[in-house]
Amino acid sequence: xxxTALGGQNLSERLTQLATGLGRQVNDHNAIKTQLxxxxxxxxxxxxxxxxxxxxxxxxxxxxxxxxxxxxxSMGEMxxxxxxxxMISSGDSxxxxxxxxxxxxxxxxxxxxxxxxNITLSAHTGKLEATAKQDVNISSSTKEVExxxxxxxxxxxxxxxxxxxxxxxxxxxxxxxxKAGKHSKAxxxxx
Length: 191
Fold this sequence. Notes:
Elements: E1 2-4, H1 11-21, H2 29-44, E2 55-57, E3 152-157, E4 160-165, E5 168-172
Helix pairs in contact: 1-2
C-alpha cells in the first residue's frame, strides 16, 4: 500500500500513473476504477504482494473509516510520516507490540501521563533501567515514593553507597556525617 499526500497533481493523474506503472492502460475514470478493482482481486490471491495496489492521495485531508475493523498490513516495512503533528487515539485500549524491540525517540520532551490511574513499567525477564546523561528524578507531590525489592537495594553516588541487604544497612563512605534535630536509637547491639 502506498500513501502520499504531496499534492501538485490531481487524483486521476496519480491513479493513471499507478495503473501505468503496473503495466495497465487507462483512458478515463471508469477505466481507472476497473483497473484498480482488477489489481485488488489479483492481489487477494497473493500472500506476499510485490507491487502496490492502493494509492490514497490528497492535497487536503485523507480519512480511513471502518464500522468494524480497519487493518493496515505489510509483509515488509510500514512507515507513517507527517511533516507536522501525528495523533493516535483510541476510545478503549491502545497496544503497541513488537516481537523484538520497540523504540520511542523524541528530540525534545517526552512525557507519559495517565489522567486517572497508575502507570506501570515492567520487565518480565530482564532488567528495568532508568538512565540519563544528566539527572534522574523520582518524586511524588502528594504521597510516598516506595522502592520494594526481595533482596537488596544499593544507592551509589560519587564513591559512597548505602546498601539495604535484608534486615541490614551498610553505609560505605570516605566521611560519614549525621545531622538531625533529635536522635532516637533503640534496640540492637553495638560494634
